[in-house]
Amino acid sequence: MSQHTGLVLDFGGVLTTPLLPVVLAFEQREGLPQGACISALYQDEEGVRITSDLERGAVSQTEWNEFAGKKLGVSPDNLMGRIFGGLRPEPLLINAAAAARRAGIKVGILSNSVGLAPWDLYDGYDLEKLYDVVVISEHHQLRKPDPELFEITLKLMEMPAEQCVFVDDTEAYVQAAEQLGFAGVHNKDPRQTVVDLSNLLGVDLTAVP
């Protein structure tokens, strides 16, 4: 029997389709050069700061939209929703999480927030119903990879890190979790991630109900 009885999943890029293709599609629609969003919002020092503040809940999504709109030279109107609205559920990992719960694995969500209004990334996913624990970073004024946010998640999961597997599409966050004792899985291909999780949890997560 596996020592792992808990599973903690990132949301965007794990339970959804990948983020990068929808960002590139947004850039194309807006006539922006490829990579403009990544450069302005996730590499530029000021962009990194305000995006981190958004994830901690220190600024609102509307404030982020205004900043990002000016930075990119586009309308700020529902900008977050226009960038990421093309994300869709990732059925392989959603089904795997459901299979894990049916097998008695406790499953939690740990997600860096992008703000909840005017656009709600989590709308329609029934997180509170389908998962045992849901931790959204802005509710705790923290963000991954802050160790305190992982510790809050573990407390709510009521188990130590050594019993949990953590999945994220950002490698640095997986490494941060591993340093705390989690088994880490860097999600790059959902099919491989399901195989890796099946092995770590000792449960066939490919089973369809």
UniProtKB/TrEMBL annotation:
A Pfam family annotated for this UniProt entry: Hydrolase
Signal peptide (from-to): none
Record InterPro entries: ACAD10-like (IPR052898), HAD-like_sf (IPR036412), HAD-SF_hydro_IA (IPR006439), HAD_sf (IPR023214), PGP-like_dom2 (IPR023198)
The protein's name: HAD family phosphatase
Organism (species): Streptomyces globosus
